[in-house]
Amino acid sequence: MQGLSNRHRRALLAAAAICMGHGGPASAQEGARTGGALDLGTVVISANRTPTDAAKVGSAVTVIDRATLERARETYLKDYLDRVPGLNFAQIGGPGGLTTVMMRGANAAYIMVRIDGIEVSDPTKTQTAAALEHMLVGDVERIEILRGSQSALYGGTAVAGVIDITTRRADGPGVSHRAAVEVGSFGTVSGRYGLSAATETSEVNLSIERNKTDGISSADSRAGNREKDGYDNTTFSANAATRLNEAFRVFGALRYSRHDSAFDDFVWGVGPTDEIKGTPRNRTIGEDAGVRVGADLDLLDGRWKNTLSVQHYDTQSTTWGGYPGHYDGDRTKLEYLGSFRLNDMLAFSFGADYARETARSSEGLSGSIDNAGAFAQASLEPIAGLTLTGALRNDHHSTFGDHPTARATAAYRLFEGTKLRASWGTGFRPPSAYELFAPIYGNRTLKPEESRSLDAGIDQSFWDGRLTLSATVFKLDTRDLIQFAYDTGAGSYRYLQVPGLSQRRGIELAGKVQALDWLALDGSYTFTQAEQADGSPLLRVPRHKATVGATVTAIEKTTVSVRGTWVDDMRDTDYSVILPDFSSPVRKLPAYFLLDATVTYRLTDTFDLTLRGRNLLDQRYQTVWGYGTPGASVYAGLSARF
User: Fold this and answer.
1) pTM value?
2) What is the DSSP string of 573-641?
């Protein structure tokens, strides 16, 4: 835990001891249970903050389960999320490069990301957001992606949606081990090990993973940049739980990551470029550590469920080279979550939380933000097949005072295999500590953005569930968007409020079919029109994105997965040109198509051999203007379960 203070070391070690002895990964309200292991099945957790049958969920939700994760064998979380309708990524260079996720045209500052209930956004970032470029998936059990405004349930960060991640769970009583190694292109070497142990009432899961690569040039090599920018990541996670009696359960989760990444220079009027020969390399070393502990208490024969938890997240990073600096941020949060089922028709969920986050840097940033919130939601089933929910929340922000938000959803099972759904919500995003308090670029006159979100869709299954189709239309309107722009009054760049309404509208289509016993197909398409109040496009949001995949198991012991991804009509700023008003023009990035494939061969009941190919057509493309992306690459791995 190099770089953490003694205070944080002691806190994390104490929490780890609690986790190993008593803690657990998720509350009773955040996962269905069978004995000592979680059995999530078709239950959706994130949509109502209490286990809900998927047929009763009115929001747009995508679930990525363990089987999908193991079939694709990706290394980074973003590579799975990139397949989800409504999501796209823009990354600066190769592995470890700064990554921006967009959900329905809204960037990471509008998306809450949780791992085992721990909020993992970085308070020191210019806009508070999770660093998805550093998230490995060797320990991940399940991912839920909840789209649409969720501020009424989760608070201001969840304006566009929630990404809720659950780490590995035990399959049942006993002890099991998982191990894997992989080598491949760009000098990449990775390895991971996991342990799960469970009894009828308790379980503990541990995982450690490391990924190291020489990388590619962060600045596009087609512009003459040749210097490779490497990346090294080590991640440790643990979760544990024990049920002391039928009504009481304690749990805990711990996560630690250390990452070392190199990056290239950036010159105004030129753009990204290799460092000048003989000058120090640009390099950032960061450490992230999070812990959550709590307890569940079930009363009234399980009709009234209660969860009380506390979490702490600490992130530190130091940068050397042309952009030296040190950044230190943390968040402490106390949370209560409850649910009560009155009868078969009516149920309530409710909660309260208090969070304090701080951000400090060597450049003079120093600020803290406190927020206290409380919410209540009613869920009503007035007739068979119809589920209605309504939620209200109020957040009291230490700078901006009270901000109420609301949410309503409807899900109607019209026929067998047919579900109609709709959701509406309001949200607000308060300025980050950096946007408010940073020297030079900060602006203390900023006020929170306000938003409204609406979506409606249909989910349809045919052929005894072998074929499923989904269609969703959505809109997200944001008033008084905060952007980094040139302030003519101050004669410099800083964060400014853009008056008016920024609009994001689109369509999400998805489908999958078990065409034959040995052939499964899936695909998705997203159309997004994202515009600022003046009609200009929001950057790094593709208008068109489609994916198509096939999984073949025709040969005994062999699984072949192939996936194609097409992206078109995405725009970004061309910083190689400076206009008279000190701005830079916006350019359309070229369309691209990526072809990936994975072949897995089961050597024995214990060992699997995997061969992965990425960008097999060797497409030269950009997701951020001027920055490179990896070309064709191949990776071979061996995994074991015992």
Assistant:
1) 0.92
2) E-TT---TTS---EEEEPPEEEEEEEEEEE-SSSEEEEEEEESTT-----SSTTB----SEEEEEEEEE
